[in-house]
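Hi,

Apologies if this is the wrong queue. I'm a grad student, and the batch job for ATP-binding cassette domain-containing protein from Nocardioides imazamoxiresistens produced an output file that my downstream script rejects. I'm not sure whether the problem is my script or the file. Here is the sequence I used:
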Amino acid sequence: MIEVQGLTKTYGAHRAVDDVTFSARPGRVTGFLGPNGAGKSTTMRMMVGLTPPSSGSATVCGVPFAALPNPPREVGVLLDASAQHAGRTGREILAVAAQTAALPRRRVEEMLELVSLTRTEADRRVRDYSLGMRQRLGIAVALIGDPDVLVLDEPANGLDPAGIRWMRDLLRGFAADGGTVLLSSHLLHEIEVVADDIVVIGRGRIVAQGTKAELLEQAGTVVAPAEATDGAALVRACAGAGLDVVRLGDGALRVEADGTTVGRLAHAAGVPLGRLQAADGAGLEEMFLQLTADTQREDATHPEGAAA
Ligand SMILES: Nc1ncnc2c1ncn2[C@@H]1O[C@H](COP(=O)(O)OP(=O)(O)OP(=O)(O)O)[C@@H](O)[C@H]1O
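Support response: The file is valid. Your script probably expects a header line. Output copied below for reference.
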């Protein structure tokens, strides 16, 4: 279990993390999603005692990270896969990690096998590792103490498609065994395929959180009139009922309401529909971009923007 309460970090006048509260529960994968610079890494660094918070608190397994008697046995942490000593071999890094946590030496070979680093690769210096190999080594270090909790910052960076699949299966398996997983990403798809719960952060603040199913529901309904000329009437009908409406660009709209509500409004307005469906993943992406729009470097929202 991870509990974060009111975590805030200011750098001068800049609030990098602003009153962040959420929890990551056992048996579930929690995705921490936000665009570049949203505050994910800073939040995670505060959770594991690497950055002192300006205010607020975080506990892992019920206590602050710094109070854990043998952290690697409780929490596996991967924050920066390139932070390992570049002159050491992968095997040496794992050996040091095992020794620090008072673990038997055999854990080193077990972890190498788990993350599929070959004998030759394990004996190579980390400076000669690809980013994907560094991520695998980082996962091995995180798992070496057989922890209950995993905190992983962008663990899929640098992994090839097979590696991403491997990582996903590993995290799902970890959670299925009762473990708690918190992983960050700036890519919705990466989070969507693996997470049970999603916390969305933008410009240091939580902008949405809930189970994936709840967020998909909030993503609303995609609707399009049978006749393109009815587009404006459909927008008026939905917006007039106080619903948020976003034009999707192909004549369709995303309306923040369930299908029955939208269907009734269209019917009342005398607009025959050509399409009415749950917004699902594409809707979630639209919602994510909208929620974090003011934190995106590029204006990723559709040029037509919000219609209401
Ligand atoms: N040591 C620091 N000093 C000043 N500002 C910082 C420091 N560390 C982070 N920041 C700022 O805090 C904000 C959040 O950064 P953070 O690295 O937590 O974002 P992120 O969500 O992890 O981004 P990314 O997806 O790009 O890794 C950014 O504006 C960043 O410039």
